[in-house]
Amino acid sequence: FKYVILSADKKAIVIGHHTAMAGWVVDSTYSTRLSAGTDYKLGVKLKAGLVNVSLNGAVIASSVYNETVTMGGYGLLSLKGAKSGQTSFDIVEVKTDDTAYAAAPVLQVAAAPAPSDAGMVGTLDVSELSPILQEAKLLWTNALGAGDARLAALTDVNIEVTDLADGILGQTVGSTISIDTNAAGWGWFVDSSPQDNSEFQVRLPNGVYVANPSSPASEHMDLLSTVLHELGNVMGFAEDTGADVTGMILQAGVRRLPDFGVGPESTTTSSTPAPHAAPSFPASQLEVAPPVIRWDRAVPGVVPSGDGLTGGYYDWIWLDDFINHRGQGFGNRNPNAGIKIHLPMTTELR
Q: Which residues lie below 8 Å from residue 325, measured CB to CB, with a gap of 6+?
C-alpha cells in the first residue's frame, strides 16, 4: 500500500509505500511546520499514478508512481514516533468518482407493467411534488413521534422528477429521491387533498387503503405512497416485499401509510412510536371490525346489536360491491343507466 504521514517528530510530510519484502519505504519527504497537539486538515488526492497532498487546503507535496495508486483499499494509519503519543482523527471524508463505490439505489417498483390500452398518461411536474412531500413528512412525523432521531434525515432530502428505468416508480440514493415521470406508464394519482383518503374507501390492515373502481385513483399509482416509501428509505427503514409502507412493490389504486400498530418496527429507539393521525372517512365507511360475510345484510347500514360485533357503522360497501357487482365500475354494473329517450311532443303514448 501507499501511505501519507504527518510527522510531528520530523516536522515533515512523508509519502511512501509498504511491501512485504521491502517493508516501509520513504519515497518523498517535504519539510513543513508541524506541531504535536494541533489539528490539521490533511487532503490526499489520488488519480492514476499521481498522489497530491494538501495541508489545510493548500497543495504542498506530490509523488508519481508507475502504477495505478487507486487500486486496493484505503484506511487510517498511526505510527508511534520517537516520543510516546497518540493520533486522533476527528473527521474522515472519502470521495470518489469510481462507479464501483456508488451506493446501490433503493427502489420501489410497479407490481405489473402498465396495460397496453392505458394510452398516453400525463407526466409529473416537480411543482406537484411539493405538497405531497410536505404531507409525507408530516405523516412520518406523526407516526414516529416528533422527537424521533430518524426524522433528522428528512431535513436534507433532495427530490427530483426524472425518467427512470422501466417498471421503477421511485429510487433513493443517499438523501436524493428520484420519482419517475409517468409512474412506469401507469400515470400518477396526485392527490389534491392528501390530508384525507377519501379516494381510497377500502381499508385493510398495515395502513393500506384501496380505491374503488370508480375512484380517479383506481388505475394509477399513488404518488403519496411512493414518496412515503422513499422517505422511509432515506431514514434507513429496511425494504421488504410486504404490503405496508416499506414494501418495494406497489399496485395501482393502492395507498400505503405509516402505521406502527402493525407496520415497520422501530430498531433504533426505545421510545414507543406515536400513532399517526386517523384518516378522514365518511361515517358510513368507518371500519370497526374485520370484514365478515353477512348474507342477511349486504348493504350499507347499522350493524344489528347482539351479533358479536362492536356495533356502530360498518363498512359494507366493499362487500356489496364484491358480491353483487364483482368490483365493476358504475357504468359496467348499470349499462343502461345513461340511456335517455327523447320523445317528440306530438307522440301519443298508449
A: 332, 333
